[in-house]
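Q: Predict the assembly, please.
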Amino acid sequence: MSIDTPLPVLKPADFASDQDVRWCPGCGDYSILAQMKKVMPTLGVPRENIVFISGIGCSSRFPYYMNTYGMHSIHGRAPAVATGLKTCRPDLMVWVITGDGDGLSIGGNHLMHCIRRNMDLNIVLFNNRIYGLTKGQYSPTSPLGKVTKSTPMGAIDNPLHPLSLAIGCEATFVARSIDTNVKHLASTLKRASEHHGTSFIEVYQNCNIFNDGAWAYAKDRETKLDTTIELEHGKPLIFGKNRDKGIRLNGLEPEVVELGKGITEDDLLFHNEKSPEPSLAYLLSRMRFEDGFPEPIGVFRSVDAPRYDEMINDQVKQATKEKGKGDLEALFNTGETWTVK
Amino acid sequence: MATSTPTKPITSIEEATIRFCGDSGDGMQLAGTQFTNTSALLGNDVATFPDFPAEIRAPRGTKAGVSGFQIHFSSHEIFTPGDTVDALVAMNPAALTTNVTDLRDGGILIVNKNAFDKKGMEQAGYASNPLEDDSLAKYKLHSVEMTKITRLAVEDCGLTQKEADRCRNFFAMGLVFWLYDRSLDPTLRFIEKKFGAKFPAVAQANTKALKAGYHYGETVEAINTQYQVAPAKLPPGQYRNIMGNIALAWGLLTAAQKSNKQLFLGAYPITPASDVLHELSKHKHFDVLTFQAEDEIAAMTSTIGAAFAGAMSVTASSGPGIALKGEGLGLAVITELPMVVVNVQRGGPSTGLPTKTEQSDLLQAMYGRNGECPMPVIAASSPGDCFDVALEAWRLAVRYMTPVMLLTDGYIANGSEPWRIPEVADIPKIPVEHPGPSSNGDAFQPYERDERLSRPWAIPGTTGLEHRLGGLEKQDVSGNVCYDPDNHDHMCRLRAEKVARIANDIPPQELDGPDSGDLLVLSWGGPYGACATAVHRAQADGKNVSHCQLRYLNPFPKNLAEIFTRFDKVLIPELNLGQLSRIIRAEFKIDTISLNKVTGKPFSVAEILEKIEELA
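A: Predicted assembly structure:
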């Protein structure tokens, strides 16, 4: 498409495929799909240049419902499929849709390597802390003691925390949002799309059939202001219904403090999503409701770093510049040859 | 440098087979490669068999660490690296004991006398010194103080003793070069290129060691005959020596250019396939992207992503890696995307024999996936053939929108032979079509098929063709997810039929020998050379035997059934326990006779010939 051709004005409905959405009624996935469709027309990217790649699981049905290019691949492999695609086609905007089982269990290895390479992909991990499509076994994010079909006496594996993992791999963009917090979710998806490099977004998503209420504390109107904290770059970490609580650093440990009584905003931890060191983001990712902390939502980290997809193509350009475009005849005749008459 | 002054009698022989063997740190692969290149440049036909342990450096002097390189060179066309060895160079006792049984009676045996100390002989299991008892009496033994002479030859080069000892392989080379009247020039050029600029002292020392070996041959009276092998009469053209894995990589590069495609290789290092990754990584300026994935699964699935993207997409591995790719191959089959999957086979099961050859992945290639999951399978016959088969694999992949399994094996991959350099312009183009943008608003039908049953390769970025692929069963034509029982039955049959129809597009099976007879030898892959040679010899002896070498294993050439009717017996030699035999029996309902071997070594001509003589 030539640069002069204006992009057609698209609406969210233009991103809906003709397929019936088959998630269970009431599933949090509907909300994520709706926000994605809402964000898409605002990105300035032609629909044909957008690709959704997923693995297996409830969340991974997502590409079927988007009227873009897409692939519903195999369990856990979406980051690898997307890597091949993006490497060959840096011009495309590629989204990876995954879940806690798909991304962290069977596909943990691919996720880790994709993130460390800083592939320019937007990875959205729907975390419902359960296996839904296989009907209710515990997942790598299920809490200890979780009773499920496969853990009648309670889960005994220590859960994995998706953002801690991503930050451990030095993800360059890390964020968290919540399925029902639609405005926040839409703005988080938008910010992820604008980042160059791997964007990793964890979405707290409710599975109302097999794990209903897993995130109730973070979603409940009554409690959410006390159990979550919205991160804003350059701002102190303040939360609470009355915005009277904050997070302060005590040595290397965060602690919840009440504002007033000699504690002012200036004593609090200030968020810096641009910090080159991932330590702050990691510390934030470790703040958990069960340990008495509000759980951060928003952008934990957003830094620039070289991208694999860009560098691999740069090497091709550099090699071509140095050696000229590959010439088969010259190649075949390198080294020692002889003539038979 | 001129060839030798003929101070000793020169005997002309038609062909010879020599083997260098020593510790894996002794530089035997280098010696073998240099001898090969020199012989090829001289115009001999050559066939090689490098044989090395899986350990990079097994404990020095042990049998486990012995590495060897065998070269068969000839004044006529040859197809194998030779059954028995005419001249053996053994750098230590372990190499002697593990290799000497392959030396023919009366053969030349050159050993490094200095390595036969107490420890060395103990490690090799010698109770007494074989150079001094008469256990080697049936060979022409030349016990040479290689370590001592090499140290003396390089003493003014300023090397440490350890460094000086590393020049021993050049001494051995020099001696063998003299023995077979080869020029030192190619090796001198190699030394200059490899060490000249960076390590002048090493270059100087290696040069001196090489010449010392050569002059030793010239002057020592005990070695009283020199041999000459004249150039072979190969078809006219420009030649070079080529290894199978390199030919394969170049074939892929050529296929990409001939189809106007960027080449993507997704791979995870694995013996003996890694050289394909190494070689392609060197040629980025051919618009090549090489992705070293985190594992075999990612290598496979990134290849699928690259195929979706519209690239010429390839993954290369060996059996254990192909096992991990199985799930991805299923996705490749159901999404009907074109790609090439290379399996450089090695000994299995499991990790098996990583550096040894075998053909035991044929059933895996054919059936090693869940569901009804048909894939075309083709196999290379020789190092040079890897080039042609790579082109053919991609031609079939794009024409039929399917992954294609390309089988080679460790023997072909690491072996080398003279290769007639093709005229690039003469290599046919591989046409690729992508449907263009559509603005009529109709839903694109990604599974609409042409007369070959091939679906369109619509790539992201094309307006109006947005569609979703995936591993769930596809509705015919629309490609939407579909659980309808009849549709699934129909789609399974369609995918099978599409692959079966490739038979319409491949050349009829050729037959080497009479059209009918007592015995047909049917082979595929690496045993080609041994089978061809054995059949030619049997034919010369008046046996009524012919040979078919299969390139296409799925589907088979259409005329194969008819060929079988013209022979009383069918012999299938395979480096497995009867995999092709099983398929042939099932497909053609004929009896077959299997000749099987899984020693990690290729067939010798004698083994095949013996079986032919038993049957015809």
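Chain B has a mean pLDDT of 95. Residues 200-219 of chain B form the longest helix (20 residues).
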